Amino acid sequence: MDADSIRAAYRRYARFYDPVFGNLLASGRHAAVRWINRRGGLRVLEVGVGTGISLSDYRKDNQVVGIDLSTEMLRVAQERVDRERLENVEGLLEMDAGKLAFADGSFDLVVAMYVMTVVPDPQGTMLELERVCKPGGDILIVNHFAADKPGIRRSVENWMAPFSKKLGWRPDFTLDTLMSGSRLKVEELQTVPPFGLFSLLHCRRQADALA
Q1: Whole-structure pTM value
Q2: Topology of 3-204 in CATH?
């Protein structure tokens, strides 16, 4: 996957993303936002905010910054913010998740939903998420991770892998691949519907991880 392929895929998806993918991916999205909403007063970075489908679900005392690589998806997100008067959305910015234009430790919590199989450099992106998260802060990832054992599911994922550019995500992406080289502490990994195909991964940045 490269940036141009990602932009092209989501340019196609922008206007019908919510009705097609909104329900399909709702469980993981809701699980992540519920987890975040256990606390207030947070500054949250949502990486891959897309059409902003999750923005109205955040607690109003949590300030949210959303970034995405797709101009078209961000345009839909901004329309949503304006229409729903989401005053806790601090900004929506076009930005590469692998090259975040934020200072170290800018956010209490960073969340990336259905993003890590899309970005060109998942490991580099994880390092960036860690960098902009405050020491002791939380990072939530919602994603599909390939089956870790041989079987029908792994075979289907491998068969689909060559179509990654058309799909806009990597079916054969593994958790080990994502965490390779990461200094984050994995706190929890739980499956979410539909069919257990997606997982909610909770990591924490250690206080001295980047010292």
Answers
A1: 0.83
A2: Rossmann fold (3.40.50)
